Amino acid sequence: MSDNIKLPSLGQAFFVLGGFLALAFACQAFKIEIHLALFSGWFLALLIGKLVGHSYKSMEEAITDGIHNGMNAVIILLAVGALVGTWISGGVVPSLIYYGLKLIHPSIFLLATLLICSITSLSTGTSWGTAGTAGIAMMGIGAGLGVPAPITAGAVLSGAYFGDKLSPLSDSCIITASMTELDVIDHVKGMLPVSLISYIITAIAFTITGFTVVGNNTVDLSKVNAVMDAINSMYHVSLLSLIPMVVVLALLVMRMPSIPVITFGAVLGIIWGIVFQGLSPVEAITTAWAQIPKHSGLVFIDNILSRGGMSSMLWSVGIILFGLGFGGLLEKIGILKVIAQKVEKGIKSGGSLSVMTIIVAFLGNLFGSAMYVSLILTPKIMVGKYDELGYDRRVLSRNSEFGGTLTSSMVPWSDNGIFMAGILGVGTLQYLPYMWLTFACIAVTIFCGYTGLFMWKKNEEQVLAQKVSS
């Protein structure tokens, strides 16, 4: 049976991918849920899969395997929803916003957001955990200072993904190192030069923006005071309210597993809601599922403090499940492999190799709807060309990580795009122009590719070892 299976043609690949994109854009234009586009994409892929020789049973298994491989992300998503809900009702997030408004100088707010989220993600290895804790607090502080939400979200995401891709605790870092057959520390070292250059560029950009957009002259202090008064009227603000965040971050730094730690953080939020905010046990527990709506009279702060709970993540869970199934199908029938085979014929230099790796990784997010799909597929598809041109695996791992991890939240229907838009309250296409770390890393990576800077070549021992293993 396997002898009758062939790769799709380029036209068939474009039929599936182009058809899916057309459906996705139509759904957005007519305000139809994107879930239906992803679900319909399954049947476009199934049709081509049958035409090239795959059995329906094998493709159905590919769908379930794709979903199974991403279930960890779904569980974390639900756990973070519970954490956010209980931390808001327990006064953790409101206290962070209150003290942030009191202490952070407006003109350096964006730089502070970048640094705080970077430190948090480096320490914990999770961009989702960073966005769901420090990120939400910085969004609230930014709203109080009058900073446009998309710019604040861009600073949060730049910091969150800086740590996510460089922390040895990060799942994306570990997966990429594993797929390129590298030690995690070697993978991190390979990313450091480009990452640091890009981070400095990003920090300068946010600093300049902070002084020009949210400097002293543009901050309405009466609005800041109104936010602080509103928080004070709804919550008991206390430094003790920050203990759950300290505990959770400490446990993550100690490399404790994410799901139990985040769930434990949600339990602490419930306890804090009962002890410090005067909620009944039933009310406090209920906020793990659905947040209690807030009515302070300030719409923008009510929107932030009315978020959270597992139920708020169910829309996102649906998209992720459909997306993971679609990604599993695309891998099974070889759609992305066909496109990569066609374009890699034109790869003759480190520059074109870097560009194509980033494009393939982005396509993994665009059509696989999940960062994990991108990080698994990209090294598989591109490794042969790196070996052929004699580049060290550190170059492959770096380019795969930058193209996969850093672009993951740019796709509205990907797991990261859905999560970040939902948790930060800003649409994907709204915050996308301000993801300056992503743009800086990609630009510096391409520059290095064409100039040969940090494009390490394999030594003779590595070449021999790879020939023996192959």
TrEMBL record:
<dbReference type="Pfam" id="PF03553">
    <property type="entry name" value="Na_H_antiporter"/>
</dbReference>
<feature type="transmembrane region" description="Helical">
    <location>
        <begin position="196"/>
        <end position="214"/>
    </location>
</feature>
<feature type="transmembrane region" description="Helical">
    <location>
        <begin position="103"/>
        <end position="122"/>
    </location>
</feature>
<keyword id="KW-1133">Transmembrane helix</keyword>
<dbReference type="InterPro" id="IPR018461">
    <property type="entry name" value="Na/H_Antiport_NhaC-like_C"/>
</dbReference>
<keyword id="KW-0812">Transmembrane</keyword>
<keyword id="KW-1003">Cell membrane</keyword>
<dbReference type="InterPro" id="IPR004770">
    <property type="entry name" value="Na/H_antiport_NhaC"/>
</dbReference>
<keyword id="KW-0472">Membrane</keyword>
<keyword id="KW-0050">Antiport</keyword>
<feature type="transmembrane region" description="Helical">
    <location>
        <begin position="261"/>
        <end position="279"/>
    </location>
</feature>
<feature type="transmembrane region" description="Helical">
    <location>
        <begin position="434"/>
        <end position="456"/>
    </location>
</feature>
<keyword id="KW-0813">Transport</keyword>
<protein>
    <submittedName>
        <fullName>Na+/H+ antiporter NhaC</fullName>
    </submittedName>
</protein>
<feature type="transmembrane region" description="Helical">
    <location>
        <begin position="36"/>
        <end position="53"/>
    </location>
</feature>
<feature type="domain" description="Na+/H+ antiporter NhaC-like C-terminal">
    <location>
        <begin position="159"/>
        <end position="453"/>
    </location>
</feature>
<feature type="transmembrane region" description="Helical">
    <location>
        <begin position="313"/>
        <end position="330"/>
    </location>
</feature>
<feature type="transmembrane region" description="Helical">
    <location>
        <begin position="74"/>
        <end position="97"/>
    </location>
</feature>
<dbReference type="InterPro" id="IPR052180">
    <property type="entry name" value="NhaC_Na-H+_Antiporter"/>
</dbReference>
<feature type="transmembrane region" description="Helical">
    <location>
        <begin position="234"/>
        <end position="254"/>
    </location>
</feature>
<comment type="similarity">
    <text>Belongs to the NhaC Na(+)/H(+) (TC 2.A.35) antiporter family.</text>
</comment>
<feature type="transmembrane region" description="Helical">
    <location>
        <begin position="351"/>
        <end position="377"/>
    </location>
</feature>
